[in-house]
Amino acid sequence: MRLRSLLFVPGDRPERFDKAAASGADALILDLEDAVAPAAKATARAAVAARLRAARGDVAEFVRVNPLGTALLEEDLAALAGVSPDAIVLPKAEGGASVLDLSARLAAAGIVAPVLPIATETPAAIFQLGSYAGCSVPLAGLTWGAEDLPAAIGAATSREEDGRFTAPYEMARSLALFAAHAAGVAAIETVYPAFRDEAGLARYAARAARDGFTGMMAIHPAQVATINAAFTPTAEQVAHARAVVAAFEAAPGAGVLQLDGRMIDAPHLVQARRVLERV
């Protein structure tokens, strides 16, 4: 499935579900975790389960459940029993062992869905990022978070005054990016909290696409169009990718070629094919 934009929607606000689905997002993340107050958890579970049992549209519908090791997760899965969203988003994941644990719980509840781990929300999680590759559980992608981790270690913030991540969280971001590609799944950038800052969002999303992320999470419908644009190859990029592929098809025995006055070789061909896969 195409995952350029994944829009969070609080599970206890069902009146927002249709508006979110009409935003242009590739997927909705119906949230049962942080966006829902404890007193509203039961209401949220009922609303999300009803949504998933209704006729589905073209927009993928994910569910973010509560973390492993909590009674809240067991209540989430009981409410979703027999209903299969397009993916389950697992907060505070700590490597392949976490998704294996969740997968067993999903199977017991009659839920068939791949898992999308949020892979950097605890200190221990950082040391398990390489374990998602080959963990034998279908993954819908892999993403990271920059809010829970600083809270977990007592850091004042994860960002500089200009919005850039501080060094520890740049490292977490980079490791999550490489972990996703090592596992062969979609690499999803974390949210941009300042949803009214359109220019800042555009720079942030463009940087993510440049660095190798394939999509991004959103917290407001107004962010979706900008995110989709950042992760959709431009006409110029597509034309160049097709030219690279055509050049190597015309000279199948060549290791290095010239194109538009520049040398191209195998990595350029790999990159070109990935651009065309995203079209």
Helix and strand pattern: EHEHEHEHEHEHHEHEHHEEH
- The helicity comes to 40-55%
Counting DSSP H or I runs of 4 or more residues, the number of helices is: 11
What's the rounded overall pLDDT mean?
94
Radius of gyration: 20 Å
Summed up:
By secondary structure, the protein is of the alpha/beta class.
Based on the model shown, name its key terms.
two-stranded antiparallel ribbon, globular, 11 helices, 279 residues, 8-stranded parallel beta sheet, single chain, alpha/beta
Secondary-structure blueprint of this entry?
Elements: E1 5-10, H1 17-21, E2 27-31, H2 41-53, E3 60-64, H3 71-80, E4 87-90, H4 96-108, E5 115-117, H5 123-126, E6 142-143, H6 148-153, H7 167-183, E7 187-189, H8 198-211, E8 215-218, H9 224-230, H10 235-250, E9 257-259, E10 262-264, H11 266-277
Parallel strand pairs: 1-2, 1-8, 2-3, 3-4, 4-5, 6-7, 7-8
Antiparallel strand pairs: 9-10
